Amino acid sequence: MNQDSGKEILKRIKAALEAAVETFSSFMLSSLTIEFKAGDDPVTEADRTVNRVLYQILKRDDEGWLSEESFDDSERLKKERIWVVDPLDGTREFVAGIPEWCISVGYVENGKAVAGGVCNPSTKELFLGAVDQGITLNGKVVSTRTSSDLTGAVILASRSEVKRGEWDCYKQASFITRPMGSVAYKLALVAAGLADATWTLTPKNEWDIAAGVALVECAGGIARKIDNFRLNFNQKTTRLPGLLACGPNLFEQVTSLLGQGKSVSEEKPKS
Hints:
The protein is α+β, with helices and mostly antiparallel strands. 29% of the residues lie in helices and 27% in strands.
């Protein structure tokens, strides 16, 4: 992706996110019907409506589409460029009125997340970034933190994982654990230097992380699978193992910590 195409993609992402925010504002949470997918994952009509808005603004004929709220077909696998979207990441937080949900839009070329946008309507934060252009938060240029020591570092953890006790092994750690909802939002905060790192110990789907991974990497940080392998998107199977993301100078400490006998759950993806 060259600089001109990157600017066009970011313009499209920004327009789509702004339209999505406006669409969300038309819904009254108290009147929304909450349904549940397989398991206990909630979904609302807001998710589906915003998904349609994003599709209309983002997709071109030569591009593929992968979204949590769209039927997935194999056509996307034939495309070099694809949108990977979650119209509402953190539905549990959205329903509960916790300001930790977001709209997540990632753009993938040849398996690599090269641009992304994450918007948290509750906090009025808009993160945008693309390869060779860095990232911005509400128009201001930001980047990952440069710290190289986990002591005192702020680590964003999955609230669900913390509740299930999966982070109990870190209770005596020297870093600060901050439980939070949406994984896309956590990744965006790390990309913008508002936290040092995040990792998840349970599998995620591509739509959960594509935009956030693009932001982290475009901001100078590092994002990997929990097993330290590189992330590849637009795969036939959308589920990925847990992942980690941090500033470049903290990577060795984080991978060392996570490699100390910590197993990764193979359960279905959880937030």
